[in-house]
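WARN retry 2 of 3 for item q-0093 after timeout on previous attempt; input resubmitted unchanged.
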Amino acid sequence: MALHFLSLAQASLLHLGRRARARWASWLRVLLLAAQIIVLALASSSYRSGRQRQTILRHIYLATAPLLTWFLVLSALISLVLIRIVVATAVSYGLSQYALEVVVRTLVLELIPLYAAMFVAVRYSMPNAHGIRERLAGLEDGGIRRSEQELLQAVLLPCALAAAFSVLLLAALSCVVALGLSYLTVYGFSPWGLSAYTHSVGKVFSAPVTLIFSLKTLFFSLAVAIVPMAATAQRDADGRYSRGSDITELARLFSVVLLVEVVSLLGNYY
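OK item q-0093 returned
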């Protein structure tokens, strides 16, 4: 009986070891692909071809224009609700002088970049990655195989640049909308509160906080752009392109986004 349990424990440990090595290799491939995409994005040779530029611009339009109106409307509604809750709570406790700072810190610094990244991931990046993988599988079934360099430069790079640009643009516009709504909620349409408003917002956006906010939004955009594309570029055990689990890919992306968020919180508040 003891030998049976010992053999079961050894088999379980071996299975866990294989799974750990497989996940570590998967994350290494994600990091490698991230480095390759960043190098290609910074290389001027990636934009010399007129056809390549047209492809990148088309993907940027597809990743941004269809999402822009609905995202800004949704962001404005969420911002207005949160601003009203924070302002009303601060007034009820006699802390109205801190309401704007709380709104800016919670809504602009933390929430808007996070849900902008997840919105682009769910609406563009992940569906597009799945579509690319299905097309690659179809080409492979037809006997057509694309080289890794061609796949990176002609397929993955335009999609990754489009997703990153979409996150940055949507986050920036949503921050402007939230700041404008916060002023209107507190001061109305009067111009006399502009000095106090800019002073309160400026106290929040110090140089370190602005740097951390910018880097966090940039890393969010890179995560949304690269992590789904990494799943697209990975082959299965048989060396073929097969569609992976949506939950697994979303969990991988969310873990990266959560890591960036935790690091930014540590930088801002500790």
